[in-house]
Automatic annotation (TrEMBL):
Protein name: Major facilitator superfamily (MFS) profile domain-containing protein
The entry's keywords: Membrane, Sugar transport, Symport, Transmembrane, Transmembrane helix, Transport
Domain of life: Eukaryota
Pfam family, one: Sugar_tr
GO CC annotations, alphabetized: membrane
Topological category with respect to the lipid bilayer: Multi-pass membrane protein
Chain ranges of the Major facilitator superfamily (MFS) profile domain: 20-470
Compartment list: Membrane
Family per record: Belongs to the major facilitator superfamily. Sugar transporter (TC 2.A.1.1) family.
InterPro entries reported for this sequence: MFS_dom, MFS_sugar_transport-like, MFS_trans_sf, Myo-inositol_Transporter, Sugar/inositol_transpt, Sugar_transporter_CS
Claim: Transmembrane is one of the keywords in the record: yes
Record field: transmembrane: 16-36, 56-75, 87-105, 111-132, 144-167, 173-196, 313-335, 347-365, 377-403, 441-464
Length: 511
C-alpha cells in the first residue's frame, strides 16, 4: 500500500506549482491585451489612417494568420530548447511586434508589426497551457491549465481600460500608445521566467531524470508522490526499460520530438486518433460560437444596439472585460471540483440561449431604424452580450485550453498542442476577418443566429467525442481514450475498481 497523498489543493507545494504556472501564463496577457486594445484602437486608426472596412478586417485577423507560423513551429522548438526558454522567446517576439505597432507611421508598418506580434501569440498560446499541465499535480491541473485563459481575459480587460484612458490623447498618439503598451508585460516576463523551474516531463525526455525528480519534489506533497510520478513519466516517455535513460544519460541532440507527426497523422493508433479528434475539435468549435465577433467587434454591436457616443461604447466594453474575467475566475474554482464535461456543456447551453436572444434583439433594433428602437430590444441586446460573455467564460473558454493541453500523451503533447493552437488561430482569423462582411450579408442579428446553430453542433461534438479527464494523471489519460465510446463518457468517479482479493483467475468477480 502506497503512502497516503495529501489532497489539500492549497498546500505550500501546490501553491509553488500555481505560482510557476502564473508566471508562465503571463505571456497570455499579451495576446489578450492586443485583442482588447485593438477593438478600440481600430476606431481611431480608421479615423487617422483613413482605412476602409476591408483593411480593418485584415488588421483584426492578420494576428491570427501569422500566429499559425508561431504555433506550428512552437511545439518542435519547445521540444528542442525546453518549455521555459520557449516562453522567453515568445515574449521577445511580441516585444518587437508591439514596439513596431507603437511606432508605425502608416498602415503598412502597422500591419507588419501586428504580423510579428502574431508569431509571438502563436508561441504563447501553445506553450503556456502545456507548461502549466506539465508542472502541476492532478488535483489542481484543471485550474492551472485554465490560467492562460484568465490571463487572456485580464489582458483584454487591460486593453479595454487602456482604450478608455488613452482615448483622451491627441489622435496621432492615442492608438499608437494603446498598441505600444503591449511591450510592458514582455519585460516583466523576461525577469519572472528566471525564477521558474523547467517542466519535469521535458527534463525526463532529455534523459535528465535527477533534475526532473528535483523539480517534482518541489511541486509534490511528498517525496513518495514525486518518486511515483517520475516512474509514471518515464514509462510514458518510453524510458522505463532503457538503462541509459533510467540512469540519466541524455538523448542524442535533437532526437526528442522526432517522428511525432508520423505517429499523429500517418500511423495513429485508435486511442491517439480519438485524442486528436477531441483535442483538435474543441479548438475548432471554440471560435465558431462567435466569441471573437463579440469581443473584437463589441463596440459595433453596442453601437448597433443604440449606444452612440464613443466614451459610452468604450465604457461598455470595459464591462465586457470585467464580466469575462470574473466568470473565468469562477471556472477556475469549479473545474477541478465538478469536472470538464458538466462545465463545458452548461456553458454551451448558456451560449446558445444568449446568442438566440442577441439575434432577436439586434434584428428588432435594426428593423426599427431609423425610427426609435423599442427599449426592450435595446436592453435585451446589451444584456445578452454580457450573458454570452459570462456563459463562454465559465466553460468553453478556459476548458478548451485545459482539456486540449492534458489529453495528449507525453511524446505528442508539445507538437499536438502546436497543431491545436494552429486550428484555433485559423478559426479565430476566419471569424474576425469575415464578421463585418457576414453581418452585412445576413444582417447582424442573422450572424448571431448562425453562431447559435454552430454552438448546438459544438455541444453534440463534445458530448459524444470528449470523455471526462477530471482526476486522471496525465499518464493515464491515453487509457481513457482506448475504451469504447460509452465507457469513455463515464466519469472516473463512476468506475469502481474491485480489490484484487475479489477477483478470481478467470476474471469473474466473486460474490
Amino acid at each position: 500500500m502506497g503512502e497516503e497523498k495529501p489532497r489539500d489543493g492549497h498546500s505550500g507545494k501546490h501553491k509553488y506549482a500555481v505560482a510557476c504556472s502564473i508566471i508562465g501564463s503571463i505571456i497570455s496577457i499579451l495576446m489578450g491585451y492586443d485583442t482588447g486594445v485593438m477593438s478600440g484602437a481600430m476606431l481611431f486608426i480608421k479615423e487617422d489612417l483613413k482605412t476602409n472596412d476591408t483593411q480593418v478586417q485584415v488588421l483584426a485577423g492578420i494576428l491570427n494568420v501569422c500566429a499559425l507560423a508561431g504555433s506550428l513551429t512552437a511545439g518542435r522548438i519547445s521540444d528542442w530548447i525546453g518549455r521555459r526558454r520557449t516562453i522567453s522567446l515568445a515574449s521577445c517576439i511580441f516585444l518587437a511586434g508591439s514596439a513596431l505597432m507603437g511606432l508605425a507611421p502608416n498602415f503598412g508598418t502597422l500591419l507588419a508589426g501586428r504580423c510579428v506580434a502574431g508569431v509571438g501569440v502563436g508561441y504563447a498560446l501553445m506553450i503556456a497551457p502545456v507548461y502549466a499541465a506539465e508542472i502541476s499535480s492532478t488535483q489542481i491541473r484543471g485550474s492551472v491549465t485554465s490560467l492562460p485563459e484568465i490571463c487572456i481575459s485580464f489582458g483584454i480587460l487591460i486593453g479595454y481600460v487602456a482604450n478608455y484612458l488613452l482615448a483622451k490623447l491627441p489622435l496621432v498618439y492615442g492608438w499608437r500608445a494603446m498598441l505600444g503598451l503591449g511591450a510592458l508585460p514582455s519585460a516583466v516576463l523576461a525577469v519572472g521566467v528566471l525564477a521558474m523551474p523547467e517542466s519535469p516531463r521535458w527534463l525526463v525526455m532529455q534523459g535528465r531524470v535527477e533534475q526532473a525528480l528535483a523539480v517534482l519534489r518541489r511541486v509534490c506533497d511528498t517525496d513518495g508522490e514525486a518518486d511515483e510520478r517520475i516512474a509514471e513519466i518515464m514509462v510514458a516517455a518510453g524510458l522505463a526499460d532503457d538503462d541509459a535513460a533510467a540512469s540519466g544519460a541524455p538523448h542524442e541532440p535533437g532526437s526528442v520530438g522526432k517522428g511525432v507527426w508520423k505517429e499523429m497523422f500517418v500511423q495513429p493508433t485508435p486511442p491517439v486518433r480519438r485524442i486528436l479528434v477531441a483535442a483538435f475539435g474543441v479548438h475548432f468549435f471554440q471560435h465558431l460560437t462567435g466569441i471573437e465577433a463579440v469581443v473584437l467587434y463589441s463596440p459595433r454591436i453596442f453601437k448597433a444596439a443604440g449606444i452612440v457616443t464613443r466614451s459610452e461604447i468604450l465604457a461598455a466594453t470595459i464591462g465586457v472585460g470585467v464580466t469575462k474575467t470574473v466568470f473565468i475566475l469562477t471556472a477556475i474554482l469549479l473545474v477541478d471540483r465538478v469536472g470538464r464535461r458538466p462545465l463545458y456543456l452548461s456553458s454551451l447551453a448558456g451560449i446558445i440561449a444568449s446568442l438566440a436572444c442577441l439575434g432577436v434583439g439586434l434584428t428588432v433594433v435594426e428593423r426599427s431604424a431609423p425610427h426609435h428602437s423599442p427599449a426592450w430590444a435595446v436592453v435585451v441586446s446589451i444584456l445578452t452580450v454580457f450573458t454570452f460573455i459570462a456563459s463562454f467564460s465559465v466553460g468553453v473558454g478556459p476548458i478548451t485550453w485545459a482539456y486540449s493541453s492534458e489529453v495528449y500523451p507525453l511524446r505528442l503533447r508539445a507538437q499536438g498542442a502546436s497543431v491545436g493552437v494552429a486550428i484555433n488561430r485559423v478559426m479565430n482569423a476566419g471569424v474576425s476577418m469575415t464578421f463585418v462582411s457576414l453581418y452585412k450579408a445576413v444582417t447582424i442579428g442573422g450572424a448571431f443566429f448562425l453562431f447559435a446553430g454552430l454552438a448546438v453542433l459544438a455541444a453534440a461534438f463534445f458530448y459524444f467525442m470528449c470523455p471526462e479527464t477530471q482526476g486522471r494523471p496525465l499518464e493515464e489519460i491515453e487509457e481513457v481514450f482506448s475504451r469504447g465510446c460509452r465507457a469513455r463518457l463515464r466519469s472516473p468517479a463512476a468506475v469502481v475498481e474491485l480489490p484484487v482479493s475479489n477477483v478470481v483467475p478467470d476474471g469473474e468477480a466473486r460474490p
